[in-house]
Write a structure and sequence with these properties.
alpha+beta, Nuclear Transport Factor 2, Chain: A, four-stranded antiparallel β-sheet
Length: about 150
């Protein structure tokens, strides 16, 4: 029960900040996804400036989906291509990239490709996450018929 309350409060906090949660305040799971997005976006869309985390646009933990916005920074393209806390986001610079992670699959699009982004998110949210059959303590034995 306590875990459920913690999850709900974390989701409420994410929603109440309009997606502008500081990178350092995110869960390790989310930062790993964001670092993968940064790497992929820099490989596919990066130019002279390093693309880095700006905000989370949409999250649905139940469907295992995270949509993150990356923007160019004051830093030149560099390796490793993960979050660089000393780089300042340049809000008006281009390209701005939206990366959608859906159950382990990452897709990054230029922010102006809004139809592709919406389609990717819609497909992710429509499909059901894989079900995992587990044995719960206290459950009856699978071979026992009542």
């Amino acid at each position: 029960m306590r875990g459920l309350l913690f999850l709900l409060s974390a989701l409420f906090l994410l929603e109440s900040t309009d997606g502008h949660t500081e990178y350092e305040q995110l869960s390790q799971h989310d930062t790993e996804i964001i670092d993968r997005a940064i790497t992929q976006a820099n490989e596919e869309h990066g130019k002279a400036k390093h693309l880095d985390y700006d905000s989370i646009l949409h999250v649905d933990h139940g469907k295992h989906m995270l949509n993150v916005l990356l923007k160019p920074t004051s830093c030149v393209m560099m390796t490793p291509r993960v979050h660089q806390k000393d780089c300042k986001i340049q809000d008006q610079a281009r390209p701005q990239v939206s990366c959608v992670e859906c159950r382990g699959s990452m897709s990054c699009f230029l922010l102006r490709d809004s139809e592709k982004i919406k389609q990717t998110m819609s497909e992710c949210l429509k499909s059901s996450p894989p079900t995992v059959k587990t044995h719960l303590p206290g459950d009856g034995h699978g071979m026992l018929l009542i």
